Amino acid sequence: MSTHVLNPFVGSWAYRSLLNDPNVDTAFSALEFGVGTMTIAQNESGALVGSVGGPGWQLDLYGGFGFGSGEMARFRGTGLVGGETWIYDYWAVAVPIWQNSTPTLQRPALVGSVTRVVAHSGGVPGSISPAGVVASIYAVKQD
After folding, report:
1. pTM value?
2. Which residues contact 39 (CB under 8 A, 6 or more apart)?
3. For the chain, what is the mean pLDDT?
């Protein structure tokens, strides 16, 4: 008999990540780090599996989740993009449901951060996207 814990991370999510720029005058459009769809499932062993990606990039996800002061997940995204290995680590918490809200007024959401584990080519020919960059993430449940 399977004993899966209800997993708040399972589903399809509209994914966005933003650079952590402290300058409030920076245009919001200049903060974009990544945008796409994140899909998360729970396999038979209880691990998180899925993918995250958008136009021109796709990473396979593998990780886990736990409970404490809120539900927390940590997973690694890996993939071959333009012939290069991309590796990103993700950490996210499920935003709690507010007591005075309703499913109409509050969509399930994840917030957290992502870091680039290994450098890869940048968006401009000859440029490098360095390892160690950290961006904030948020994802809104689609289903």
Report:
1. 0.91
2. 11, 12, 13, 50, 51, 52
3. 93
